[in-house]
Amino acid sequence: MTFDLEHGKTLGIVGESGSGKSTLARTIARLIDSSGGSVVLLGTPTTKLRGRKLRKFRVNFQMVFQDPISSLNPRKLAIDVIGEPLKVHFKVHGEELTRQVTDLMSKVGLEKGQLYRYPHEFSGGQKQRLGIARALALHPKLLILDEPTSNLDVSVQAQILRLLASLQKEFDLTYLFISHDMAVVYHMSDLVMVMYAGQVVERAETKSLYNHPLHPYTRALLDIAEAEGKDLTVTLGGEPPSMRSLPTGCRFHPRCPFKVDACDKVDPQLFEVESGHFVSCHVFGVPNPPSPEEAPHEGS
Amino acid sequence: MAAVRRSGAVERLRVFAREGNLTFKALRTSKLSMVGLIILLAFVVIALLAPFLAIQHPTYVSVGGALQQRWPTDTNVALEPPSLAHPFGTDELGTDLWSKTVYAAQLDMVLPFEVMIPSALIGIVIGGIAGYFEKAFGEVLMRITDVFLAVPSIVLALTLAAALGPSLTHIVYAMIATWWAWYARLIYGETRKMKHRDFVEVARSSGLSGPSIFFRHILSNVLSPAIIQATADLGSVLLAIAALSFLGLGASPGTAEWGLLISQSLSYLFVAWWYPVFPGIFLIMTSLAFNLLGDGLRDVFDPTARRWLSQEMKGLPEVTHRETPAAAAPGTLLKVDDLSITYLTYEGPVHAVRNANFDLKAGEAYGLIGESGSGKSTVALAVMGLLPPRSTRISSGDVFFARDPTRATEYTNLLLLPDNEMNAVRGKDIGMIFQEVSDSLHPSYRVGFQMSQTYLLHQFELVLGIAAAEAEGILPARPCDACGASVNAGEWLCGTCRTVVLPPKEMQRPLGDPVPKDVPGGSRGQLRKYRELYRTYSKRKLGPDRPPDSRTKAICRKLAIRDLRRAMVPDPERTVDLYPFELSGGMKQRVMIGMMMASNPKLLICDEPTTALDVVTERNILDLIKKFKEELGVSVFLISHDLSVIRRFCDRVGVIYAGKLVEEGPLEAVFTAPVHPYTNGLIKSLPKVRADGAFVSKGEYYTMPGSLPELKQIPVGCVFAPRCEFATEECRKTDPPLEEVAPARTAACFHPLPGGDPDGR
Ligand SMILES: Nc1ncnc2c1ncn2[C@@H]1O[C@H](COP(=O)(O)OP(=O)(O)OP(=O)(O)O)[C@@H](O)[C@H]1O
Ligand SMILES: Nc1ncnc2c1ncn2[C@@H]1O[C@H](COP(=O)(O)OP(=O)(O)O)[C@@H](O)[C@H]1O
Ligand code: SF4
Ligand code: SF4
Ligand SMILES: [Mg+2]
Ligand SMILES: [Mg+2]
Questions:
Q1: Alpha carbons B355 and B376: distance in angstroms, whole number
Q2: How far is the CA of A252 from the centre of ligand 6 (A)?
Q3: Which of A189, A223, A254 marks a domain boundary?
Q4: pLDDT per position as a tens digit, B275-310
């Protein structure tokens, strides 16, 4: 997979669970090693960094995890949670540390009175704010957000999304925003990448992707996001494949209503259908793709 | 500036004191551990005051560099029974046993720590390294640990004593050599568990190095299990030391040590009963006290075993439950009536649900929406009777359920049912699926095996009926009871509609009949065995601890395949033999649903069934539940924080906020025209891509300020008032009751919205 992300922009990544979104995030955050290829951040190939150099370079990219409960050490006070990276990297201590932590907490909407509290004394949304404050402590350039709101309910989700948007402006941050909710990604991203079974099946600017979704999987996702409880036009049966036994050809073909002969034999490549809009599909990833109605349909 | 620094330290001290206070409070409520603590303190005092309490005192002489005790002897008073002069009697040399027993406390209170502290330290280091650097050292270190675990400490001590001569020091070495391995194993397991928690990854991504992650984040979390274990083990260590002394491997003869005293007494057992009795009592009391304290600590630190909470329950008033509901609308399957539930925590009560009222009609899908922590799961668990009994308290209300469909107006109060009957309700009448599928399926058993456990537990009559019919050979060709298609001879599952077709009634001889001479398709022995089985199983519950035989196994497997197919699991014949980890999350949820639907329950409770799944799989799972609802008429109680999940197929919805039901009504009505300001806010907060066919502009969604209040006190007035834009003085003073605001719609609000849109007020 290949993509570039401009400074100050948000790349949204959607796809079902197990499609490799978290794996991608963890690879970029250098929590796991990639099996090939490279990630270049601010001109430095991070995939080549090792040991102390890597630890130093980590100030440039930080990650916020999906589960606010398990991502906080239950035995650390809020001040230690947020202050730890400051101590480790900038050797900040004492009252300066308290000042900086208080500052960060107010940035994410937490109060000074909550400095000396344990994580279990915060609500779910507040825990996620703590996680964000910690990630911001090092003033990173890139923030990797792995489904930061999927464990929260809508009223809190909306607050966190708003917070993230304002922090992006204030600190000039670049986001890698992972979610399986098309509507959330729409509101957060400049660019969107749709993943299926470990591969990118469609990548485009947000407007272009949501206006003219091309890949059948993207369409199904959008359909669900917009149907609001009504029945769908395209229903996808089946389950995502297991990474151990991937289907031949297009990985989506066992579930695809539009599949043609080539689909189970040849793996489609990403093709630039319009400028900046890439699709990997034998039927829709071609110049002047047909509309779904024109395309040969399994049922018909 | 200095003041700021000091205030930080003060704050930390304050947190420390608060935590310590809570721990002590918790410990105090566990009576047994307090008894243990008091006994231990008493012995510490005895040991410290020994020079003052004792009548005789030892002198110390150096023998080969080591100090040895020498006690005054007086053969005139040898083996005297207890008297005023010698309260515990005297030994064979005429030494006062009270003095020796008291002085022995000095040694015996310290020895276990001499063993335990080094053992625990070595164990923590080795286990921690093995667990954290598993790839590099795990295998090697744990093999070494196993070797040490395999050698009994007695053998090691014997060897050491043989090689170096008996001495207490050698016993301590021998004990350390074996005990550390237990801690290594414990810490190894705990470390491996901790290592995969997200906060370790968070620390890594902040650039901490391996060792500092271990010391800062892992150690503090694995330490408490080690300390608890070590405290409880101190008693065993003491006993082991005494046993080794008893064998003559430990303290040099003449030393005041409880084990040694008992050992020396043996030769005089028949002339001096008092000799072993007092040291024995001291020894056993100390060892017991360590155990009690260890157990108490475990209760305090292990949230799943909060036994001590039952103490605080006593202060709460008794509630009386009613047998039957005051009134129930016709067709009501489940009636939750004025239900309030309180969790008892050591920080005080949490009022998780307050006065919840709702009805679920037969065949209906009822959705409960609410923010996380609002009490949805608590309601579901209360209906299922699965609330942790010791730490929860139903402070008011009842749960009525119509168990018998033929007498739909007769209700059972589930809260009054005894455990065994509630078990039957859970298996047969109400099924439940949870958010964390991986927790509901056991990771190390095959899917088919786990499904057969359910059949054997909840449908053993059916399984054994089939088994007996098979063995008795009474399965002729006949039409299916359900769909009328013909079923072949020897078959009991309809090939068309997949219902179980039992033999015709007249052929099912009562079990008391004599065994017929000629059993078609089986032997008389087999039939006798099945009748026997059937009889025992009907009396005693057939459970997972009773392994089925090959015939019931085959029947369960066939049933499992049928239920997987009903839950639309592709390739069910293969899936039954898979382990849960080989299935995707959606597939696991299908297996669970299939399992729950096996007994055709009347009600299926789904607590966030799809929160861990992606949207497409979520859709498919919801459609599956919908299918069961439509085809089999099962009522569904669907819980979610996700509006789109509830919106998929519920007939009616209830909205719960901070433990209080705030709005209820038909699905479409509530979604298009919410009445309660909270519901309205929720619906507006939902990010949308398109509205009325046109694109919404980016970032355009409503944000509701504030967050869920803490439920430690029952709030005065409306719970939503602090976040509500329409709150008035009245709202802050009085709690609005749940009242009808329109036909079939209720809301708990003084200023309900007319059409959902606040601007339209
Ligand atoms: N075992 C427990 N001990 C103490 N308090 C508890 C316990 N379980 C839940 N609570 C508290 O009761 C309230 C309701 O919890 P519940 O789990 O029912 O909420 P929920 O709406 O299902 O939330 P979620 O979406 O997070 O599952 C919360 O304040 C929670 O902290
Ligand atoms: N630590 C791991 N070891 C082996 N396989 C893994 C591991 N983590 C993830 N996977 C596999 O990688 C695939 C992608 O998973 P993940 O990155 O978690 O996806 P998502 O974030 O979309 O849920 C899945 O098939 C998953 O089983
Ligand atoms: S390549 Fe074929 S199978 Fe794959 S998405 Fe396109 S049409 Fe469907
Ligand atoms: S009762 Fe008052 S505070 Fe409560 S929701 Fe209604 S208007 Fe708001
Ligand atoms: Mg993920
Ligand atoms: Mg819950």
A1: 13
A2: 33
A3: A189
A4: 888 889 999 999 999 988 888 787 776 654 444 444
